Amino acid sequence: MGNVQLVDMLLEHGARFSLSPTDYVFDYDDLMELILHGRNCKDALLNSIHFNQSRILTTLLSIAKINGHMPEFDVTTAPIPLAVAISKSPISTIEDLMVFAGDIDLEKSFTLLQISMEWRRDPAIINLILSKYFKYYNDLPMEASRSALFQAAAYSYPDVLLFLLKRGVDVNSTLQSPMYFTALPDYGGGIRYVACQALDTPLIVAADKGHAEMVEVLLERGASLSARRKWRTKDHSDRVEVEDSVMDISLDGLHADVVRVLHWWGARWEVEEGNQKERGERLLISACRENNADMVEILLEYGISPEIRGEDGKTPLLWAVSMRHTNVVRSLLKGGANPESAGPHYYDTKRCMTPLLWAAHYGDSEVVDVLLEFGAKDSRQEGASEEGCSEENPSQF
């Protein structure tokens, strides 16, 4: 028994469904029987899009072309099929649905644009929506335009960004993030977790996401390098507690390409004693652990010492060696790291090991070769490991 016959039999015996009978249709012949009996095709249309049933969808669109409208369903007032199609269907299907949707108001057009940017991320579909629904609009609603501008910055869509800027949206617009918890420095030392909201600009968002191309486009269009991410806490007041520059945010994200773009445009990061120096040291160890050789080189150029030690007593070089990151090892040694700076064993903290011993322990011949190239001593030579474990650096023990 087919799905349609089963549903009809159940309905005759008093069954009640929370969904339309067409929600249970997954077979082409069943769909045709429903259409012949004049059933509502709305749910079949949505199902065919959702499950990528191209044969069923093509048939429904053909019927719509004959009738001049979607059967018992006005996609102009409720463009749900179009929204679903934008999120997953071929561009030809989207174009067909657009024909029957006709003109859509700006609010719904912005919704479709946001779906295409956030979920589909296909430039061809995004440009199709812009040309279809925004071509003749110059005065765009500011709130929706600003939201779309930030979304374009977050997902790196230069075409959308330029389209909105040409229509008067401010490149330095600000947008407040939803409330969330974050760690902020405590005036008494340490950190505290508070409810915060960040006040951002498109440049800050693009830098935070690591979109170097978008950062450059924004700067070319007048985005301000002096923009600051302002953290507003909701613990005792709405006062601004912390402000991060675009460079701070790019460094924290280990986005080397963005940092270089910002540097070219004149942004600088001054490493001084105190918070910025500590921040740079923490970032250097993070970059070593994340195998980010470009970021390591940038931090060394900014003056962060390659001989710093984390709370565990390990130098950046020891971290890079222990994680077998050959390129990072080479960058650190080129930047002046001492190939003999030893650190504690990973489980026996009273035992010191040089980078060469670490590399040998992991059997990493490439790292061993790089260390030897930069002057590391063979641990079998007399006094080699003792030099690395000298008491000049008692913190390593």
UniProtKB/TrEMBL annotation:
Alphabetical list of Pfam families matching this protein: Ank, Ank_2, Ank_5
Annotated keywords: ANK repeat, Repeat
InterPro entries: Ankyrin_rpt, Ankyrin_rpt-contain_sf
Gene3D superfamilies named among the record's database cross-references: Ankyrin repeat-containing domain
ANK repeat residues: 198-230, 312-344, 351-383
PANTHER family membership: ANKYRIN REPEAT AND PROTEIN KINASE DOMAIN-CONTAINING PROTEIN, ANKYRIN REPEAT-CONTAINING PROTEIN-RELATED
Protein name: Ankyrin
